[in-house]
Write a structure and sequence with these properties.
Length: about 300
């Protein structure tokens, strides 16, 4: 995800990264070139004059805009719910670590559950993106925990189980009052809910037929549009077609991009940055104020994360 201040209005006109223009450039150029050919032929197709005007395009365009608005609204709802869930990860992990540090009657090894919570956040990011979490787990956990997680299919859920097992051990040793342990189960349960919510978004895409209908309608609209405009506006037809095609193609591409908010596209969630923020704040609560090293340039570029 791109994280940066809003640029000046003039610079905004020429922004490339994050504008989805690179995704739609090929079809936009093709549509404009076709509109140029239609203009040069005065709306004729193989010596046959296509009898169209702008009236049907006004009706279809309105319907298409409403349909695109619904699709993009649905995609943004998924994006925002995903962002809310990751915000709850920050809140609940902070709450749980604070409880571990302040509610226990006797000193406890707070480093163990804290590192497991940090590993949980990184493991969830890797699970949602389908990447390998081995390097982060080896960096954060002892070899015994890593060996246990190696065979686990759902590593984030297993890490929450391991945090619960630590709480049980502390309770059995008399270091944690049962009533306090019960209160600590509340943020742990909310972490499980956030995990399930992220998995639901990742595993339940918008029905494919919505994408098919919108895609076909947009292309058919943009291909026929120059035939309906050429008699009314003449040489300006390619310009108007390019502008309208850019609007529709960009809205379609943006909806498809944020529909899966856990990916690595420029407008997806900045999971790398959020994971490192959670790690940094939890380490600070342990008394480790040193910041987490920033993302390497190559990793930041591949993740689509830019911060200025």
């Amino acid at each position: 995800m791109i994280v940066r201040p809003r640029p000046h209005w003039l610079r905004m006109l020429f922004v490339w990264r994050g504008s989805v223009l690179q995704t739609i450039l090929a079809q936009l150029l093709w549509t404009t070139a076709f509109a140029v050919l239609v203009t040069l032929s005065h709306g004729r197709l193989f010596q046959w004059k296509v009898p169209l005007n702008f009236v049907p395009f006004s009706l279809i365009g309105l319907t298409l805009a409403i349909f695109l608005g619904f699709r993009n609204g649905t995609s943004y709802s998924r994006f925002w719910e995903a962002r809310t869930l990751w915000g709850s990860l920050l809140n609940e992990t902070r709450t749980l670590v604070r409880q571990v540090l302040t509610l226990a009657d006797a000193p406890v090894e707070a480093n163990v559950p804290t590192m497991r919570l940090i590993a949980f956040v990184h493991a969830l990011r890797h699970q949602l993106r389908g990447t390998d979490a081995a390097a982060d787990l080896a960096r954060l956990l002892p070899p015994g925990d890593c060996a246990r997680l190696q065979a686990a299919r759902f590593k984030p859920a297993m890490l929450l189980l391991m945090v619960g097992e630590w709480m049980r051990g502390q309770r059995q040793e008399g270091r944690l009052d049962p009533m306090l342990a019960q209160s600590m189960e509340v943020p742990l349960g909310r972490l499980t809910e956030a995990l399930g919510g992220c998995e639901r978004i990742a595993n339940t895409p918008i029905p494919f037929t919505y994408s098919v209908i919108i895609h076909r309608t947009i292309y058919l609209y943009c291909v026929l549009l120059p035939f309906g405009l050429v008699d009314a506006i003449g040489p300006m037809t390619p310009v108007v077609v390019a502008f309208i095609a850019y609007t529709f193609f960009a809205l379609e591409a943006l909806g498809a991009e944020i529909e899966e908010p856990f990916g690595t596209d420029a407008n997806d969630l900045a999971l790398d940055a959020m994971s490192r923020t959670i790690e940094s704040t939890l380490r600070e609560m342990l008394g480790e104020p040193q910041p987490v090293p920033p993302l390497p340039a190559a990793e930041a570029s591949s993740a689509g994360y830019v911060q200025t």
